[in-house]
Design brief:
Layout (H helix, E strand, L loop, with lengths): L8 H18 L4 E6 L4 E6 L6 H16 L4 H8 L17 E6 L2 E9 L3 H12 L4
Antiparallel strand pairs: 1-2, 1-4, 3-4
Helix pairs in contact: 1-4
Length: about 130
């Protein structure tokens, strides 16, 4: 039997706090979601001014990064590069802004951010990733 680390609710709180701090610093109204390695929602914030759809999109980006074990941006790049079949993959949100959370070499979950330009969403997500220590 193999063992691997799992994300705790304390981790989720630190990740959301760090990501929110970056969003607040930049004055970006975003939605931030954290999921476990199975894509199940553990925590989500929709900051004031973020469109309601941002919440759903941030969850989708996080699920994509967790289940795919890579940034959601990779799927966007594949589709933009002509691999249109990925646009029909189940549970795939092929938009930049989902980043896996890695502990001891294992994907333990992911964070997804939506509401701004793709690189800005990723900037907020990576601030959250940095809080997983």
């Amino acid at each position: 039997m193999q063992s691997k680390p799992v994300i705790s609710i304390e981790d989720v709180s630190r990740i959301l706090t760090a990501a929110r701090a970056e969003a607040d610093k930049q004055k970006w109204p975003v939605a931030i979601s954290v999921v476990d390695d199975g894509g199940h929602l553990l925590g989500m914030l929709r900051l004031d001014g973020c469109a309601a759809i941002g919440a759903e999109i941030s969850i989708g980006k996080a699920r994509t990064a967790a289940l795919g074990r890579r940034e959601s941006k990779a799927y966007e790049e594949m589709i933009n590069g002509g691999r249109m079949a990925f646009s029909t993959a189940p549970l795939i949100t092929a938009l930049e802004g989902g980043v896996p959370l890695i502990a001891e070499g294992h994907v333990v979950g992911a964070i997804g951010v939506s509401g701004m330009k793709p690189a800005e969403d990723t900037q907020v997500a990576k601030a959250g990733v940095a809080a997983l220590v």
